[in-house]
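ERR on first pass: missing label on line 2. Operator R.T. fixed the label and resubmitted. Corrected input:
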Amino acid sequence: GENVEQHPSTLSVQEGDSAVIKCTYSDSASNYFPWYKQELGKGPQLIIDIRSNVGEKKDQRIAVTLNKTAKHFSLHITETQPEDSAVYFCAASRRDSWGKLQFGAGTQVVVTP
Amino acid sequence: EAGVAQSPRYKIIEKRQSVAFWCNPISGHATLYWYQQILGQGPKLLIQFQNNGVVDDSQLPKDRFSAERLKGVDSTLKIQPAKLEDSAVYLCASGGGSGNTIYFGEGSWLTVV
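pass 2 clean. output:
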């Protein structure tokens, strides 16, 4: 089955700096790659996603890149703000079972003022 | 639009007792999921429903866990008897709108003592 690895497990950045989280996946049939943000005591919230027919996607300060050949994808947050502090999860799923998300272990991001 | 609703938000039970969690998905979403999230880990799929039928329950510990989705809308997840290792957040999610995006509820936090 699919295995998703996520690095780093914790990331501390100064406000205004950029944060990058990287994930690798094992199943070459995976074609949907969402990123979720989870704040303490809340459920995961989708922040951006990318499908395998696209190499990069951007939404304001957030961008995701996908390298299908290398089987890795990354989340980039620019101009970080204290409210970006949370746990971020990457995930992957296949076209024939798009809802069966395989999650990474998560990255605790701390943005210090 | 209203999000995925879950209840109760918090539950503490003793081992060998039973517990039930309820989920109301986003209106119109045909697909409903139950995920288990153990502290410090990413969510793991327990069961997937399409309307009122089970699509995938391969990761559901069927000796103690059961789930149903009567009438293809609300769903209930039951654990009986509970074990200490069942302490986790139980997340309900739904999908089926445009883009096949999956939306999570706030979760039901279970502590088994």
